Amino acid sequence: MQSISLPSKPPTSPHSLFNLSFRIFFSAAAIFAVIFMVLWSFVFTGHTNIDAQTLNPLYWHGHEMIYGYALAVVAGFLLTAVKTWTGVMMPHGYPLLGIFVCWLLARLGWVAFGLGIGQGALLLYIAAVFDMLFIGTMAFVIFRAVLQVKQYKQMGILAKLALLTVGNGLCYWGVISANMNITKIGIYLGFYLIIGLILTIGRRVVPFFIERGLSITGTEKITLRNSKVQDVASLLFFLVFFITDVFYYNKYLLTISALGVAIVNVVRLLGWYHRGIWQKPLLWSLFIAFLGMCLSFVLYALQPWLGYNHSIAVHGLSIAGVGMMTLAMMARVSLGHTGRSIHTPPKTVNIMFGLMVLVFISRVLLPLVDTSHYLLWIMIAQGAWIACFILFCISYLRILASPRPDGLFG
Length: 410
Fold this sequence. Notes:
Layout: H1 21-44, H2 57-86, H3 94-115, H4 120-148, H5 155-176, H6 180-214, H7 228-246, H8 251-272, H9 281-306, H10 310-336, H11 349-369, H12 374-401
Helix pairs in contact: 1-2, 1-3, 1-12, 2-3, 2-4, 2-6, 2-10, 3-4, 4-5, 5-6, 6-7, 6-9, 6-10, 7-8, 8-9, 9-10, 9-11, 10-11, 10-12, 11-12
């Protein structure tokens, strides 16, 4: 086993926010989730001067939810988790600030484009430079750490990061070449890669979090089941689904593969289930997020036969996977990695998770049964999303910006 040299002096940073990446990126993702959804509500109702000739407003929305919000959460999680997995110190202090500034400048370019400020295409060209620097630097430091300790089992995650870089590049290439079909492919490629990452990481951390959350001193020790067969089956079904929906549409393949993903992960959820999770919001939220993803894959499977809009299934998967799952992960990681008890989260978490469930119901389920109030359901979902992340900011920004109570660096 390779030994890892410890630093000669304790690490330092100019502010607690830059001790580890989850602090700054979770904070920024939550604030961005509020600002961007408020702006999207104005774009959606036609109250901004967005340049639709340069970029379809729907693709503007999709890009920033994936490569803006979701990738910020992924950066915060991975740049923190890889330190735990490998023992190699990840960027902190000013190097971390540099990575974050690249993300921030790219987001400012996209927000300005949405507001119709300045020359639209030029803003996106500038954003492209910083976006590529952000994701490229993130992937590089993770790759370097994994190679340093020869932890090759992480190569699947690295491959997804490499493909995310390709997907984001396609989005910008579509803008540059005035070909929105290329941009669409880049957005869906990024979306399904993020879902793939969530399924991969979720398979590791959800049972671990449930075991840790329920195996408290003096009570029964919880051991949850996991299966390599389920892992392989989920991966294969998801790969076929991904290729079919993005590159080679066939309704039979789509239905079979989407149902396959749903069934495998429902079986997996049954193996993770314990009645005690309902007493722990940081646990039932993860369970509900996975269940919502499974339901969304069922919606994908049924859509070719029942004829409802494809975006219903897309939004189901995005709200459950990108919305609820990332929210639940941020709520838990922000406590554990700042030295606070995961057993006593802020009292607002139940409301936060309840609001995200309302987003799913209003944006996905209600339009299925009542299309006559479609705009109303979307507005309710937008309002619930905004309220949810405002509550997260109120409850967690102080925690994320404060030193650890035990005085340790992290």
